[in-house]
Design a protein that fits this description.
alpha/beta, two-stranded antiparallel sheet, Rossmann fold, binds S-adenosylmethionine, globular
């Protein structure tokens, strides 16, 4: 199995479930789907409710287990590196004098990341309720472990000062377009409703809300939901934590210290939203939750999300139906289809094919351009990936 992710250091993406919402304890928008996220819709319909609940619980416990396995999984990498040193001849050992002390720095970075993970898992009673099996930690799949790593890198993108440039290029562009199409003044604060599906760790919906729009995120990955919940509901001070997003990356390093580079989170306090801010997040599959909705939203914002679809036409239809007449769809992202090469439905349309679909649904394109952005980019690495994304702003007919 091979799920694509935008995260340049991982070949895997995210799947699975929410929590966020209002400031000072952002409410979860409870949906029926909350407990039934995996397996996906088609398969789920064939299951009884109990079987589906059990399946979901198992899935949830797997994610918790993967988080908790992070330390052992990472320390195994250190052990491997240590073995590489031990088999060297003495004259070669002398040529890398700091090798062993760097392994200690690596271990420290892993331990610090793990302490952070422990906080994520440990502080939320909602998640604890579900989690009886936390005591026995089992080896998790490489697939899930990649996701733990990419969630840590996602923290860098969304909530660290280091991610500011990357956020400006993507979230900034979307926020500017939002301000252009729905300008705010003293009288219309928190009247427009914006939906942001595939909201990751919640920064984009947070920023949208901060501007004065009602905003709802939507996310289905437990990896994201657990970490997003912590960031939005639990963090109390700027730079409260230091995480080490690159500590397991040993390739493409100019300097050894780059591997142990820490980034502080958060760069802004989620609790800084005004009291009247309307901020929430739904947990579950976008199509399942919003498919039944009609004419609810003034704007739907999709950022690095469309290519997460099994069937992108279904995403586009859902967006169309959920938008109010004359509503706006703002999109930014590449087409790195997440389910490509997987044993799942994966309709991999090119942008011109997608455009035909969107036009056929009646949308009018007002802005359409290519934009260069990065995704969880490691700035000090010898390898950087750039996306030539498509950015569009299109209107649903009145
Ligand atoms: C590539 S990330 C983008 C996150 C954020 N928008 C950003 O730009 O940083 C895509 C997100 O969409 C979520 N996702 C994928 N398919 C989804 C679905 N069907 N319903 C809800 N969320 C989904 C993934 O879990 C992931 O967090």
């Amino acid at each position: 199995m091979h799920q694509h992710s935008h995260d340049e250091n991982s070949h895997h993406g995210h799947d699975e479930k929410s929590h966020y919402g209002h400031h000072h304890n952002v409410s979860v928008v409870q949906n029926e789907q909350y407990n039934t996220l995996k397996p996906r819709k088609q398969k789920r319909q064939e299951m009884s409710e109990t079987a589906s609940r059990e399946e979901d619980e198992k899935h949830f416990n797997n994610i918790i287990n993967a988080y908790l396995y992070y330390q052992r999984w990472s320390m195994n990498k250190v052990s491997k590196a240590e073995k590489q040193y031990n088999i060297l001849e003495d004259d070669h050992k002398k040529l890398v004098p700091n090798y062993l002390s760097n392994l200690e720095k690596w271990k420290q970075a892993i331990t610090d990341n793990y302490n952070f993970i422990d906080l994520l898992i440990g502080t939320d009673l909602l998640f604890h309720e579900n989690n009886d099996s936390a005591t026995a930690i089992n080896p998790a799949s490489e697939f899930d472990m990649e996701k733990v790593g990419s969630t840590i890198r996602q923290l860098m993108r969304e909530w660290s000062p280091e991610g500011a440039k990357e956020r400006e290029a993507s979230f900034g562009l979307i926020l500017n377009e939002l301000a252009r199409v729905l300008p705010l003044n003293e009288t219309n604060q928190y009247t427009y409703r914006v939906l942001c599906p595939g909201s990751g760790l919640g920064r984009l919906p947070f920023e949208i809300c901060k501007q004065g729009y009602c905003c709802q995120g939507n996310e289905w990955s437990y990896f994201m939901l657990i970490t997003g919940n912590y960031m939005l509901n639990k963090v109390r001070t700027i730079a409260q934590h230091t995480i080490y997003p690159y500590c397991n990356q040993t390739s493409n390093l100019f300097k050894k210290e780059d591997q142990f580079r820490g980034v502080t989170i958060p760069d802004v306090l989620p609790s800084s939203l005004p009291l009247n801010a309307d901020f929430s997040c739904s947990a579950g599959d976008f199509v399942e939750i919003y498919g039944p909705q009609t004419e609810e939203w003034d704007v739907i914002v999709t950022c690095f999300f469309l290519d997460c679809a099994n069937n992108i036409i279904e995403f586009a239809e859902t967006i169309k139906n959920a938008l109010k007449p004359g509503g706006r769809w703002i999109n930014l992202g590449p087409l790195l289809y997440h389910f490509a090469d997987m044993d799942e439905q994966s309709l991999e349309l090119s942008y011109d094919e997608i455009k035909h679909v969107v036009l056929s649904l009646g949308f009018t394109f007002e802005i359409e351009k290519q934009v260069t952005t990065t995704y969880t980019n490691n700035q000090t690495s010898m390898m950087n990936t750039q996306y030539n994304c498509v950015f569009f702003s299109a209107t649903k007919p009145k």
